[in-house]
Structures are given as structure tokens and as C-alpha cells.
Amino acid sequence: MTRSDYLAKLDKYLKKLPKEDYLEAMDYFREYFDEAGPENEEEVIAELGAPKDAAHDIISRLLDEKIVEDEKSPKNRAVIIWIAILAILASPVALPLILVLLMVIITILAIGIAIIAMVLALGVALLTSGVYMLVDSWSYLSIAPSTTALGVGLGLLSLGLALLALLAAGAVGKFAVKSISKLIQKAASKRRKS
Questions:
Q1: Domain residues for 8?
Q2: Which helix (H) or strand (E) holds 115?
Q3: Could you count the other beta carbons within 10 Å of the beta carbon of residue 26?
Q4: Where among 60, 92, 124 does a domain terminate?
Q5: With 70 as the cut, is the pLDDT of residue 69 above it?
Q6: How many domains does the chain have?
Q7: pLDDT digit string (tens) for 6-22?
Q8: Are residues 64 and 99 in the same domain?
């Protein structure tokens, strides 16, 4: 690995830092290579370790500095939180954390889809039973008009509930599709920017 390869990989890991901290960190590494000279590049790379490890060390050190600064002036809390997140993601634990987060998202989506399917099934069942009650209630007209009225009322109630269930499932489904498409658009726009 050459100096430029090392710095390019390091740049990839550090570019999410606040601009001032990013520039300071990259200047530090460039000066470190400059002081060692081109003939000692391999020794410097071996001394620094993998770019990801060097980035993790810088981010951790920066986090410690920001926490100490914050004790003196509490205005940098958002920066500290952002650097803490970057430190977690730069650590070797990041991949399992991302996988867990991905599994949680998939689980939430599966539960949402199951709820929509359940409401749709309830709507279809209510619709079917409502139509059946309306048709069946007319067969009781010769026996007792009150039974027919009750059957018609229950059938209409069932149809109304079916309509509400189907409308609710449609609204929730539409909301879910819009939300997912917005998330995909945000992710795609962030990829284009980086």
C-alpha cells in the first residue's frame, strides 16, 4: 500500500467528521508521512496500522477531547454525539450492530405487513358475512319481521365495518409505501452525494 492509497482509505473513514476536525486529522497524517519521507512510507504504514484502525484511534481521541471540552462549555453536545456514533461505527463491533439494526427494521416491516394483511382479511370476512346476513335476513320475513329487521341491521353494520377496515388497511398501506419510498430516496440521494 502506498501513501496515497493509505490516505485515500483514511479519508473515506474520516470524511463524516466535522469539517474542522476532519481537516486537522488529515493534515496530521500528511505531515506524519512528510516528516518520515518517501523512503520510509512502508514503515510509517506499518507503524500506523490499518487505515480503519488509525481512523478509529483518531475518532476515539477526538471524542475524548470533545467530552473534556464539553465539561468546560456545554455547547458542543451534538458534535459529541455525532463523533460518538462515528466511533461506534468505526469499531469492529459496527458490522454486528448494523446487522442487528437491519434485522429490527425487517421485523418491524414484517409486523406492519402482517397487521395490514390481518385488517384486509377482517374486512373481507366482514364484507362476506354482511352480504350473507342481508340476503339471509329476507328469508325470515315470513316468520317474524323483527328478525328480518335485526338481520338487515346486522348485515348493514357488518358492511359498514368492512368498509372501515378496508379503508384503514388502504390508508395504512399507502402511508407505508410513501414512507418506504421516501427512505429509499433519501438513501439514494446520500449515496449520490458521497
A1: 3-92
A2: helix 94-137
A3: 17
A4: 92
A5: no
A6: 2
A7: 888 888 888 877 788 88
A8: no
